[in-house]
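Appendix B. Extra example for self-study. Work through it before the problem class; the solution is given directly after the inputs so you can check yourself.
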Amino acid sequence: MRNQSFTKHYYIMLLPGFIWLLLISIIPMFGIVIAFQDFNPGKGFFQSEWVGLDNFEYMFALNDTPVIFFNTVFIAVMKMIGNLIVPLIFAIMLNELRMMLVKRWIQTIVYLPHFLSWVILSGILLDVFSYTGPINTVMTFIGLDPILFFARADLFPFIIVASDVWKEFGFNTIIYLAALTSINPSLYEAAAIDGAARLRRMWHVTLPGLRTTIVLLAVLSLGNVLNAGFDQIFNLYNPLVYSTGDIIDTWVYREGLLNMQYGLATAVGLLKSVVSFILIIVSYQLASRFANYRIF
Amino acid sequence: MAKRFMLVSLVFILLLSACSSGGNNTENATRHTDNGNSSTNVSGEKEATEDESKEQADPFGKYAETITLNYGKEVDPTDKSLPEGDTPENNQYSRYIKEVLNIDTKVTWQAASGTNYDQKVNLAISSNDLPDALIVKDSQLRAMVKAGQLADLTEAFERYASPSVKKFMEKTNGVSQKSVTFDGKMYAIPSIQVQSDGVHQMWIRKDWLDKLGLEAPKTIEDLEKVARAFVEQDPDDNGKDDTIGIAGQQNGGRLYANFLESTNNTYGLDPIFGAYQSYPGFWLKNESGEAVYGSILPETKEALAKLRDMYANGLIDRELGIRKSASETVTDGKAGIFFGPWWMGYGPLPDAIKNNPEANWQAYLLPLDADGEFNAHMGAPSTLFVVVRKGYEHPEAVIKMLNLLVRDESTFDISVPIGHYPLRVPMSYTDESEYSAQALREVLAGTKTAADFTDPGYKLLAADIANIKKVKKEPYDNLDIEYWDPKADEGTWKRAYSLLVGSSSLTQDYNKIYSVLYSQTKTMESRWTNLKKLEDETFLKIIMGAAPIDDFDKFVEDWKRQGGDIITKEVQEHVK
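Solution. Structure tokens for the complete assembly:
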């Protein structure tokens, strides 16, 4: 890894990603000055009136602020856990499958939803969970009362998390499958010779082999604690579930884009970014400590 | 080690791409780039200097050389009326403008009507990246004036507006003029809408009523009875329990029109509130002449309690506020009652009768309140505004286009919706629908003829009278669907049905309640989103049984505390 000539082409491969990151994420970052301004688009960043921390003060005075922060963290953490565990179990199960053709088929099918946008999936979900949709039809058939799922604030976060895990687990499985291929097959053979059955081999060979990947993914996902998924929630929520479903991003959208309160919306967004940034640093430290993972 | 590094890079790249899919798809409306600008600008400037004189210019003057006008366009994604080969950018209307005025209209971007278009306009404002002209709402107009993004149209309007357009403006007693005037300068051309756009009536399946032997419901009690019959007695005879009594708003829709969006709230429940003399979302005057917000008054609580009761009994669409498309309930023949303004003949009814030619939708100014009166909250005469970007060389071009629209609208083939006319905002006398409906009835009854209606300001009336008998079958005084022939001329039918069925009732007397204010005050700019969220959430929860009715009292308190009181004072100042 310290060998320069060996790693050069990896950096070249990373280059397009970095250019993209620069254009889409780094340069627009200068827009955060809006958080300290009474931003007027006609005057631009340089002439708009400077209001200091007014936007932040107003933000903390709002009754909504704690609720949307809680909703965001709650949904995001649940998603993190779900997206870590479900793909792991699925990858191990898939790895035990010996028929290659079936394995490939399953792998392809489960990761198809990843490529559909939430705009399309939300329409499908709303239909599936609607009052006359398939789920309620089954529920009435087995004698339960139909439920209007998207009107239930208590169920909303769980529908969000479950549908997100369903959409993404196939894709996340790939990472684990990649890690599984790096486990030395001779370990399995040795274990088999020592008389370990399938479950034992899974426990003593597969899981330890995946440990670094699991820790790494868990720790890196910490940076997403405040990303609960705008596309998904925006396309599924309604006023009935504001109390549990309104997240920072949807609130910023309504306040900033619909109500044109650029300063306030940017202030909330900036706060979110700062918290995320701290979490990323913490997660990097943890990653280097527990998974021996370093970027630099 | 190499394998390890590869794995780590893979993880990293995947994470990066996973993060990226999150937030960056705001720019999803279609963008057309065109470089046809540079050459035309030169000739345009020359012409502008040529007629520098101050006197009245020709409102329909054709440009000597083609000028280009880029604009953002709202399109209805479900509209399939454009003939093969035509596009939202290039259609019969844009070609007509090119031919008569020599203006080449180009669509810079387009977005689906409603929230998507608003969002696109807001993005254009916030990024200061404006096309030459746009149609905007009141709050957007204010933001753009504040940002100094707009051209001053005072002089252009004075010189180029046609007499008809000026007369429409005068007829609103200066209300429309005032809504676009800031510091004595005119920054937009306002729409001048028919007042009937703001009156929400009850549309009901009369064929269902007849089948079940019922009358159109006069009171709230009747309404409950009829809705119950529609739900329980299988009026569509398909043996399934799948009918809806009263249709409700879709996800993102409005429960009732409000002072900022005061018109055209199809599928809202406005008349039910009206029957309790409750006008939520409107600024009213109380007995002592002070401004109060309608949503926090006890009448509103009463109306909510009734709606909650009706919802619990299954009389209102169970998927109120969640459904993706409310119009489907009407076009699929599931709903028996919905509330909407006069123009339902333009949509959703054409699709409804295509699916079921017997769907006999009739409109009534019902239900009545306890005193037997129909109460309607009334809209602002101007809710849409045509604005021109500061620095555009031909600010008068949009005025000429509107002049042309007003002059020639009656000659257009409206099987392609008039919404495809570039930068079209409604312009007419405010009483156009009622007046036209009355005129058509008199002509059909034979008491008057086309010659009796000579005011050219009722711009479509001559064509309406000439065409009415194409689609209306005898007996002329029976408006049931079986006495219409929509297939003979669908364009004419849409308008004639909307007028005769949708506007006739408006000629009778009813209570007109105006909001004392139709725009935002200073504090509203920062607080209204939250107050609105509180209101939307509480009301929908109360109706759908997710919160007790007494949450209303808590809402009133919260509303006042979170800025409502300050805002009420500001509105009070404003109306003094």
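Self-check: Chain A touches chain B through 63 residues (CB under 8 Å). If your reasoning did not lead you there, revisit section 3.
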